[in-house]
């Protein structure tokens, strides 16, 4: 769910830069220098009244007439001349003048590092690569070695600054997230986590390979800082596989625990010298490569869904969750039967840098150079952990907790094959807005009411920009869903679709330029907390709570290859829906929690497919009637 949960938490702490060590602060300064070199503008503070007007419009479909009257009164009072809204707006504008990005020093903490629920399912997404069909163990290891080499080749491009600067139209986008992918690790704390970045002056030369719950330090650079040939990496992987050791304790499941619990255990682990050395090797590595064993029987689920579950949570301690280190920013996964992809800890970066990394690796594997193994192949080094008697109990509890979470998550991943973005473009409609309206339509079809709906918008045109919320549920989206399910003519249905798509497209454009609702309201709330001002009634009103209870959490993560991203729902009674629009088809990763009787991932999949078909048919019927 891309860790949007933190957005809804009313917690504000000092700047995240204060959680770094001195070395990490220098890295943060280097990141700021990179953005300064790009000469990016600062994130604006939207005009207060425009945000409040937009907020009221977005709330309207979600509450009753009587509730809306109350919300309107609350908002009017908040935005009145000389009122608390104007005071908070003034304080936020002053903060914006004195900082590079008025949101960034709050956002990392509020959205991620202060969040104490497990990162697994609740925060960290999985990314499923084009699925494979390994015919032998050797074929699987060759793929894994090439995957490692492809990732290192991408890092080479980053180090040489040969990754093209992305643009929004003519505007360059902030590229700093790309430089936070490799060598980064989340470190658990007692009440707040921290991010550890690799030392740019002494960059790591190793990765960690996990197999049978054991962790191996694998050198991937030679003495001259050249990447080892992939066949040399393959030799090292073969040595790990041939190491006849029993499966280790599933220590990795500790990284999937509640963050407060994991923080206490981590502190205890550090007291042992050998544990500390092993933890440091994992923390300082470039990334993990997980060579997984077989999974438990997952029944009749399709291969895409099975792969998605393996990427998101590893199927618990009875599967491969003990073969993970969920704090590491990037963990590549190579499954036993061809399930391949990665899981990533969300706090350093959004989806696009990770998707671009994937596309680079997939292309690299397809065109892997025919190199030869290095005669001096370094030996993998198995890391060791000393687990005390009391910690066995903690580990047992972690296994149970993760097992409950694994059992509760239901996924339905699929490829919608009848058409893709080419057809949508042929109708002169925005593919993303069209897909968003299909998702809204599917939810309304099931529930007979609209649901608050989150879509990620990137604000990377600004220095240190991350995301803004696109509120996809709108007056127009509800009118469209009702028209499709009502007794309207096809012409009226198409008109309602066009209006809903155009409304969403307009909100999207405003959001990516920093003029959405949610981040501005968050800033006003947090500046109140920082200033010792009582939290205004606006943030306790039914309109606010209803419109921020995102029952539909969505994101477009486009990959060139046949891939999709997936994650858990944002709220207990919600759905997650991530998609990759391709020319002739659309890949989806959807999920829900089994513990909620009001949601069902398979039912949502069916409703979504039906909505796409009906939208397609009504568009074509109107075109035929005009001939």
General description of the model:
The two termini are 45 Å apart. It contains 19 helices and 18 strands. Helix 14 crosses helix 15 (475-485), helix 15 (475-485) packs antiparallel against helix 16 and helix 16 (490-512) crosses helix 19 (601-625). The chain has 627 residues and is an alpha+beta fold. The chain has helices at 22-38, 48-59, 65-79, 84-98, 104-113, 137-159, 230-242, 259-269, 273-284, 303-312, 351-366, 389-408, 421-426, 431-447, 475-485, 490-512, 518-530, 542-547, 601-625; strands at residues 126-128, 167-168, 171-172, 185-187, 194-196, 206-211, 214-219, 288-291, 330-334, 340-344, 381-382, 409-416, 453-458, 467-471, 552-556, 564-566, 575-581, 586-593. The strands form four sheets. An eight-stranded mixed β-sheet has the order 11-7-6-8-9-10-1-16, with helices on both faces. The protein has a six-stranded mixed β-sheet with strand order 12-18-17-15-13-14. The protein has two domains: 5-64 and 83-89 and 103-109 and 412-625, Chloramphenicol Acetyltransferase (2-Layer Sandwich); 120-163 and 178-401, Chloramphenicol Acetyltransferase (2-Layer Sandwich).
Number of alpha- plus pi-helical segments: 19
- Overall shape: globular
How much strand content do the residues show?
5-15%
Largest beta sheet, briefly? 8 strands, mixed
Rounded to an integer in angstroms, the radius of gyration calculated over CA atoms is 24 Å
Number of distinct beta strands: 18
What count of domains describes the coordinates?
2
Unreliably modeled segments? 1-28
Strand order of the largest sheet: 11-7-6-8-9-10-1-16
Helix content: 40-55%
**CATH class of the largest domain, please?**
Alpha Beta
Looking at the overall shape, the CATH architecture of the largest domain is 2-Layer Sandwich
The CATH superfamily of the largest domain appears as Chloramphenicol acetyltransferase-like domain
Summed over residues and divided by their number, the pLDDT gives a mean of 93
Class derived from helix and strand content: alpha+beta
Distance between the termini: 45 Å
- CATH fold field value of the largest domain: Chloramphenicol Acetyltransferase
